[in-house]
Every structure is written in structure tokens, then in C-alpha cells.
Design a protein that fits this description.
There is one protein chain. This protein is an alpha+beta fold. The protein contains 13 helices and 21 strands. Helix 1 packs parallel to helix 5 and helix 1 runs parallel beside helix 10. The longest helix is centred in the C-terminal third of the chain and has 33 residues.
């Protein structure tokens, strides 16, 4: 059954996935006046035990979309970071996060993912364009359009389909199935693109009791053990976001990466719960104070092909990084900027672009985003292994090399990376940004 609100003569973007990237795309298209419709298999802003780190180059995009102030009101910008060894000795007191804010004029923050999603959802003006509990289960293409089928049997027609539906992307699987008709080897590469070598419990907990916090607001604690590590960050008043990273006994590959239950998480806490995180608290203390918690494998990788005909993938559907430095979600927003910076001006010049013109937009997006994705995925993976002391060399570097590098130099290196992130070229830059700022490719 074709949905009644179709406008087949008008260019329309269909978006599968309503998490951070999907809702970010919705806002970007709405601000640009591009017709779209979004389909999310679950609810918007689900109450999952997750947080998201937002970095300065992403905050700039959120400012352009008009949503940053509502997020900023909920957080405490991170400032300091203490690094501990397995004996509880603090071998590095770092102020690099504060130095980064001084250099870039924007902070690094943690926020509850559900709160960030709630803000994004609230800022969508036309809620009739976004559909919860409406999973995309199939699609078919013609020379002029793509038609999706949802789980309730409805069909929706559009000009392109964006798969922003996460690491377990249905659209990616459907695209690989189409490709397999002519290239089974490529389809196999797409389906098996991600590996998992580390597992993670990520959680939100109450930050101790009044007068007895686990760690001060704006503080991050890192503790390094052999084969595992823990990060705790106090980025929201009264809450602490924390992560237990553990090297798995075996490396797995999609689609066979493990799925974990609450019992699996409990078993990890039984094994690692006595590990100290900061000066006066343990993993078990954080666990007992938890509000929400989830255990997942840490997939990592970049798929080989990102688009096919009228379908293009974005966010975790194409690149997945381990979460230690908190760059994965930010990479997704870079993708939003790179893609819409190509599509929006094309639609202004050519309201009904050809498949060739759309393919050029897809190719330019991939050419700009893919090298950045490899950098983020590789760097994140190295940091995960560095913090879990996976080799003697990494252990030596963490204790005797990195602490001696000045916060100023670290901030400068990070700023060079952050400044390589794009922004929305079709929307005004915030006043704090230099007029001479040059948009990266």
C-alpha cells in the first residue's frame, strides 16, 4: 500500500534510522528546505544506558542547527583528566581538556544520549515527517525513484534512501543483497566489514551521595589495567558516565559479533568489580549506583562501498570506531555536513537531479569522509589498546612518554584534528567563528 502523503514529482529524501545521525539529518534537511521523511524502528529518545561525547567541531554544527543551547544547559564541560595505574597511583594529572576549550572556544562534553535525542527531536518543526515504530524492511529502485516498504506494509516513494540505521543497519544488508547479484565478493566484504576484539559495559550512575561524590564535576578518571581499562566522567550534575573496556578472548566479525545479556554484564562485574577507578571507588561502586547500563561488543571498521544506485549509507552503518576517545558520533555529524554540503546546492540549481548528478554527490561525500573515517577508526582502536596495556610498548608509552608531553602540545595536535571537521556550508557560521575559516574537503 502506497502511503497517501507521497509527492512523487518532488525530490524527497527517505531516511532509515532516527538516532543521533538520523535526527541530525532531519534537522539539516528541514533547515535547508529539502523534503524528507524519516523512519525509526523503535521510539525516539529511548532510555538506554548510554552517553555520547560531543567535540568542538560537532558542537559548531549543533549551533548552526539551533540545538546546542538546549544541550549546553544540561551539561558541565569537562576540564581535567587524571590517569591511574593498577595500583591506584596517579601518574598523570592532565588539564588538556581545558586547554582544548581555550584554543577552540568550545568544550568537550558528555551528555546522556537519550537527552541529546530528545533535544534533536524537539527541534524538528514538522513532526509529521518523522515516524517512530516504523522499521524499513525492504526497498526497490527504478530509474527515477526508490520505494521503501515498512514493517506495517506501507510503501513510501522518494528520490534517494539514506541508511542511517546504525551498526546493525538493515539498509546496509539490503544494499549488500542487491550488490551480491553481480558481485558476491563485494557483498561479503560489506557484510563482514567490522571486527570486534573488545567488549564494553557502558553506564550512567549517580555520582555518589551529597558531599561524597565518586569524582568532582568536570573531571575524568582513566585507570589502566593489563587487558582492560575503565573511564569515568562527571559531565552532568549528579551523574557519572563510565565505561569498562575488556579485551575479549577471541576476535569476532560481523554478522557474528556477540550480543550480551544482563547476566553477561553481571558476570563481568563479578570478575572486575573490585578494580579501583579513582582514589576511593571501584567498578562495583559505580555498578551499584547505576541508573542504566548496557554491555556491547566494540565493533570497529570501515566498509568498502558506501552507496549503490539511489541508496547511500551514513554514520555507524559505514564506519564504527571504539568509543574510548568518544569520536564515533562526531564522525557521523561530519558525514551529515559533507553529504548535505553537496546535495543542498545541487537541489537549488537542479530541483530534479539525474542519477548521475546524485552519484557525483555520493562520490564526493565518500571521498571527503572515508579518509577521515579511517583516521578516527584507527586512532580510536589504538587508544583502546593503549589504555588496556595490550603490549609492553603501549604500557611503556602510557607511563613514561605521554605524561611528559605538554598539555599545550596535546591541545594543539587535537585542535588540528578538530579543525579538519566540516560544517554546514549552507547555514550561517556562529559569530565566534573566524570569517576566514576555510571549509575542509
Amino acid at each position: 500500500m502506497m502511503a497517501s502523503n507521497q509527492e512523487p514529482s518532488q525530490f524527497k529524501v527517505l531516511i532509515a534510522g532516527g538516532s543521533l545521525v538520523g535526527l541530525g539529518l532531519a534537522l539539516a534537511f528541514e533547515r535547508a528546505g529539502v523534503n524528507y521523511e524519516l523512519f525509526e524502528k523503535g521510539d525516539f529518545a529511548p532510555q538506554l544506558g548510554a552517553s555520547v561525547g560531543l567535540h568542538p567541531h560537532t558542537i559548531r554544527i549543533l549551533e548552526q542547527l539551533g540545538v546546542w543551547k538546549d544541550i549546553e544547559d544540561q551539561i558541565v564541560p569537562l576540564q581535567d583528566r587524571n590517569h591511574y595505574d593498577e595500583k591506584g597511583y596517579c601518574f598523570e594529572e592532565s588539564h588538556v581538556i581545558a586547554r582544548i576549550q581555550d584554543v577552540l572556544k568550545r568544550p568537550i562534553v558528555f551528555v546522556e544520549r537519550c537527552k541529546a535525542l530528545e533535544v534533536l527531536h524537539n527541534h524538528v518543526k514538522d513532526k509529521s515527517k518523522i515516524h517512530a515504530q516504523t522499521a524499513v524492511v525492504g526497498y526497490e529502485e527504478t530509474a527515477d525513484c526508490v520505494t521503501i516498504t515498512t514493517e506495517n506494509g506501507e510503501q513510501h516513494q522518494g528520490s534517494i534512501l539514506i541508511g542511517a540505521d546504525g551498526i546493525h543497519s538493515k539498509v546496509r544488508k539490503l544494499m549488500a543483497d542487491k550488490i551480491s547479484v553481480t558481485d558476491q565478493a563485494l557483498a561479503k566484504e560489506i557484510n563482514e566489514a567490522f571486527i570486534s576484539e573488545y567488549n564494553c559495559i557502558f553506564a550512567v550512575s549517580r555520582n555518589g551521595t551529597e558531599g561524597q561524590q565518586f569524582l568532582p564535576d568536570a573531571m575524568v578518571h582513566n585507570v589502566y589495567y593489563d587487558g582492560y581499562s575503565v573511564i569515568a566522567a562527571a559531565g552532568v550534575p549528579g551523574l557519572v558516565f563510565w565505561f569498562l573496556f575488556v579485551k575479549s578472548e577471541s576476535l569476532t566479525r560481523t554478522p557474528n559479533c556477540p550480543r550480551f545479556t544482563d547476566d553477561d554484564a553481571e558476570a563481568y562485574i563479578e570478575k572486575y568489580g573490585n578494580a579501583a577507578v579513582g582514589p576511593s571507588y571501584t567498578v562495583k561502586d559505580l555498578w551499584n549506583a547505576r541508573v542504566k547500563a548496557t554491555m556491547v561488543p566494540l565493533e570497529e571498521g570501515v566498509i568498502k562501498q558506501w552507496s549503490h544506485n539511489r541508496v547511500v549509507l551514513m554514520g555507524d552503518a559505514v564506519h564504527k570506531a571504539t568509543i574510548n576517545p568518544g569520536l564515533g558520533g562526531n564522525l557521523g555529524y561530519e558525514g551529515i555536513a559533507r553529504f548535505t554540503n553537496g546535495l543542498v546546492p545541487l537541489l537549488k540549481e537542479t530541483p530534479s537531479p539525474s542519477l548521475k548528478q546524485l552519484t557525483d554527490v555520493f562520490d564526493k561525500y565518500v571521498a571527503g569522509q572515508k579518509p577521515r573515517a579511517h583516521t578516527v577508526v584507527n586512532t580510536s582502536g589504538q587508544i583502546t589498546r593503549y589504555e588496556a596495556q595490550q603490549s609492553w610498548g603501549l604500557r611503556f608509552a602510557s607511563r613514561y612518554v605521554v605524561p611528559w608531553v605538554s598539555d599545550g602540545l596535546k591541545a594543539k595536535l587535537y585542535a588540528a584534528f578538530s579543525n579538519g571537521g566540516p560544517w554546514l556550508a549552507y547555514l550561517p557560521l556562529p559569530a565566534r567563528d573566524s570569517e576566514g575559516l576555510k571549509l575542509p574537503n
